[in-house]
Amino acid sequence: MRVAVMATCLGDALFPEVPRATVRLLRRLGVEVEVPPEQTCCGQPMVNTGYLEEAVPLVRRTVEAFAGVDAVVVPSGSCAGSVRHQHRLVAQRAGDGALQEAVADLAPRTYELSELLVDVLGVTDVGASFPHRVTYHPTCHSLRMLGVGDRPWRLLSAVAGIDLVALPQAGECCGFGGTFAVKNAEVSVAMGADKARHVRETGAEVLVAGDASCLMHVGGLLSRQRAGVRTMHLAEVLATTADDAAGVV
Amino acid sequence: MGRTFVGMPPFPVAAQAALADTTLRRNLAHATATIRAKRAGVVAEVEDWEDLRVQAAAVKDATLDHLGEHLLTLEASLTARGVRVHWARDAAEACRLVGDIALGHGLEEVVKVKSMTTAEIGLNEALAERGVAAWETDLAELIVQLGEDLPSHILVPAIHRGRAEIREIFRARMAAAGRPAPADLSDEPAELAAAARLHLREKFLRARMAVSGANFAVAESGTLVVVESEGNGRMCLTLPEVLVSVVGIEKVVPTWEDLDLFLRLLPRSSTGERMNPYTSTWSGVTPGDGPQEVHVVLLDNGRTRALAEREGRQVLRCIRCSACLNVCPVYERVGGHAYGSVYPGPIGAILNPLLHGVGSDPATDALPYASTLCGACAQVCPVGIDIPGLLVRERVAVVDAHRRDPRPKAEALAMRAGAWGLGDARRMGLAERASGLVGRLPLGRRMPGGRRGLSWLPFPGSRWTGARDLPAPPRESFRQWWSRTGRDEGHRP
Amino acid sequence: MSAREEVLARVRAALGGADPSPVHVDRAYRARRAVPEGADAVALFAERVADYRASVTRCAAADLERTVAHAVGDARRVLVPEGLGLEVPGALEDTGLDAAALDAVDVVVTRAALGIAETGTIVLTHGPGQGRRAITLVPDHHVCVLEEHQVVPGVVDAVAALDPARPQTWVSGPSATSDIELDRVEGVHGPRRLHVLLVAT
């Protein structure tokens, strides 16, 4: 099976380890991976801030870059949500029938990482090994926009050696919220501080989530607090094998 | 009396002040956690809850699609039952109508059932200007009124107050409004409630006119419904000679039988009970029982504006349960005042812009942004309003309303620049090469995991780094890695 | 243009001329049982009334008057509506007492139109035996007699059985508030004590 990786703009520019881990993981599972070079950004930052018109060229670029591939995997719940649920709005705004068709065609082929693994590839044990104490934060758009349910938790549970501990009040938003994080920075930080406190309460060494953006926010707080907890994307943990586990944390 | 939300700062500024109030945050965290747990418990008892939500949304949508016909039916049924029906285009007209009725009877005071609609139109202040005192009789409304405070929650307007504060308000302020609080009043909720009972009873027994809202108005039978807990509603709806109900035009449901959905959904969503203590229904005048002069004011005040929005229209399904407030992590931290409206929280963040329009008032324009779009509200809404979706749509409306501003906001310029930079893979690659050079500098300190983190950036980056570290740019973007080695990496032996 | 005409015109303009595609309401929920299969609706009703911290006493028809007398206790001023159909010793029948006189009543004894098992609710429709709305509101103690056959399973059944032309009061436990720290307190403006007598039939 051939799968195209949507790196996301944040993954490409700031967290390249996330799409890299996605590539490594999929190849280990025997998937033929491609990375369409014309991809940039799905337009979510613009849409969620109200700049629908500005998002039109980005959506156009995205559907063109991923035209014709069997499946698209996105290591981000919110970007997958953007493709599946928001591109329609943007295409409507553009008033471009061909674009509307193209976004309707891309949406059902687009999967968040845990969906692709569990539903399309049919695996929960991906052969990873990660002998560390880990807690998992289900990000809002994975949980409530996409409805990934317990798929990430099942994937993590199957990782060899992992000590997976439940995060108190896991389902509550971390406070990132895209431009909310700067437009309403104080509220964002107050929410993130509560999330960081719950993370510390678990005694975990690593906080895992399926969105680099949320991890950037909570991780930034944990770092400022000198909490000694590192953040890792779900893809990074699942990509780690017994061979390279020793040196990770 | 007399404080209003007019002139309050926009959400980000007001929220910052609210966050600094540790008592407020403690009161809110406790209260919202309590009600969330209660709601979850009673909702879990109803096996077909999800189906009830879908059908309730359908009833509301179907009603809105033919709103004009249902309003005419309602008017005819009410009139046939002896009700005098009035129509009001806006808040001022509704207030004038109510004031005319009170003054027509030579009254200097009215008692009030808790009503979001009369709070929305600023009825108390309007009546006060004409020399008519409007006494709030719901306990939380009484606390707000005596404290010369503003409501901060749809169901529990004094949710921001703790018991000790309430005792102080009662001790300091009750005497000026009527029967004073007992000298030895403690801060036990039961004692505080008993003090309110004594204070208000004399008002109920002498009241000649009451003003209410309505949770539902049944077109076919001309029936109004008020859902409440304390019995203050029953007092107002039963004892006075004159009753005036101010009813938003979206409150109409076609038939009596439609209530079999809403009377199941509302109490469980709102107070987290199987059923609220009292629900009163009345169809006009009943000889020998209750008010013999009954008025209904049908209010627009922006509702037809919302109705004109194809997607936004669904906000008119709202039954004012406040479940969305109770699950909102933003509301929980800042409370209701920061939203600058009697309708706070997620529903207020879409209802206010849809009722009043965007583009002219900075406070209204800030509301759709008072959310992380986490979606918790949409999951609990008993009438299935897509609150996050409408928040995004209202953000779009705000941005579009400002597209022709002579001086665009910095944000608009940044978004255009960002869209340009991200609009092409080559341009994005160039930007990444530049940031990669920055990433080679030994900036910041090591974060757990080895990445370098920046703890200080100039404005506007300081909005981030004020409390959060930010990873320094990587030396190599994913795009660079892929073209250098990634394309082949996994295929090596 | 009058306000009425203007509001109606705005409604028409907002909805546009086009006839909207009809919204379908699926009423299958009305056929679902509000009380689980095999469960006893009357027992559930009694349990759920008690959950509101109201008192519930179940009795045989033959013991009803004795049970009422016991519930009334040594209250001095007892009020009953016309058509109660029960002998309550020392009770005064309502003849349109004013609010102040009602405020001096210790206990009122009435019947109800029906009870709802799903929610532990009694519904008054204020006809004979139940009295006008004020008599079950102003006195501080309400004793309500309900026959077991009057208990319906759910809210759906109650709405279907009730006539909206009559004023109704749905009562679920004593008056209560959660306005102080969302801590539930029984007893504000309505009767602080509710006692439901459930008569076997």
UniProtKB/TrEMBL annotation, chain A:
Signal peptide extent: none
Ranges for domain Cysteine-rich: 3-83, 134-218
InterPro entries documented for this protein: Cys_rich_dom (IPR004017)
Gene Ontology CC terms: cytosol
GO MF annotation list: oxidoreductase activity
Pfam families in the cross-refs: CCG
Coiled coil segments of this chain: none
PANTHER family: LACTATE UTILIZATION PROTEIN A (PTHR30296:SF0), UNCHARACTERIZED PROTEIN YKGE (PTHR30296)
Protein name: (Fe-S)-binding protein
The organism of origin for this protein: Phycicoccus endophyticus
TrEMBL record, chain C:
Superkingdom: Bacteria
Pfam family, one: LUD_dom
Transmembrane stretches, start-end: none
LUD domain residues: 102-199
Protein name as catalogued: LUD domain-containing protein
